[in-house]
Hints:
Blueprint: H1 11-19, E1 22-27, H2 47-50, H3 53-56, H4 59-64, H5 66-81, H6 87-95, E2 101-106, H7 112-115, E3 122-123, E4 126-133, E5 140-142, E6 161-165, H8 174-185, E7 189-193, H9 205-211, E8 215-219, E9 232-234, H10 238-249
Parallel strand pairs: 1-2, 1-7, 2-3, 7-8, 8-9
Antiparallel strand pairs: 4-5, 4-6
Bound molecules: ligand BV8 and zinc ion.
Amino acid sequence: MIRGRAPALPLALVERLRAARTVAALTGAGVSAESGVPTFRDAQTGLWATFDPTQLATPSAFARNPKFVWDWYAWRRELLAGARPNPGHHALAAIARHVPQFRLITQNVDGLHQAAGSAGIVELHGNIGRVRCSRGCGTVARWADASPDEPPRCATCGAFLRPDVVWFEEMLPPAALAAAEDAVRHCDVLLVIGTAAEVYPAAALPHAARQCGATVVEINPRPTALSDDVHHVLRGPAGVVLPALVAATWPPPK
Ligand code: BV8
Ligand code: ZN
């Protein structure tokens, strides 16, 4: 049951979106909140409040204590086991059917956009469903196929396998970052959904979009570091606002 009412949708935004040839979306942990996946910052449930990510989501933490870091990710995967895409994920998948070009960029590692049917997703921070060799020999596998050891070893070189996500102080995958930058620089409308906009370089993308002439929209129940720099703020939960925005912009045929 998704709580909350859709805020008023500015007519100028609906018309801009309806006329848009290229639309991009940048999502963060908030888009999965209504799927029951805790976000990093929401104090009452946020992982950030429970664990210090610098103790967990960094290469040095993994080097220092691979099992501790591996167990944290295994616990997060458990949380995801029952998670399903929510109406916000499905609304984003629907936008792709209404506009000539739609690019979905996500900071999330939960795979819920894929599960909702979105395609061509730019995963800036990797995906918790995959593991890769921590020595970088090239082994990549589905987490589900890895041995149950904690953490399992690379079959090729014997090093530990690690979650295929981008840790703090690690570079983002160059191809993903380049695709995201290209998408935001060439879009008519950028929807920024469910992100506190505090993790870089992802947090720089909306500013690049605005500099290149895009209409930037924030969809978030709370103010963020970005709120003062966008054209439209839709203050509400993604699972309510996105379906309302899609229905108002592309009403079903009578
Ligand atoms: C890099 C994968 C070069 C792992 C993640 C000082 C200043 C500026 C930058 C830095 C700095 N010091 C260090 C840096 C760089 C650092 C960074 O930005 N740090 C931050 C904390 C300041 N960045 C990096 O390290 C990046 N790499 O820069 O390399 C380099 C090299 C060497 C040394 C330095 C730099 C790598 C960043 C990637 C980290 N990996 N994820 C994993 O998941 O375990 S980031 C992780 O946290 C998530 O992926 C996500 O991206 C991020 C959390 O952010 P959000 O998605 O925004 O989620 P959050 O919980 O914060 O907010 C949720 C929002 O949803 C809230 O606004 C809430 O209101 C809203 N919400 C809640 N419910 C709903 C909702 N919205 C809509 N609907 C709802 N229902
Ligand atoms: Zn290896």
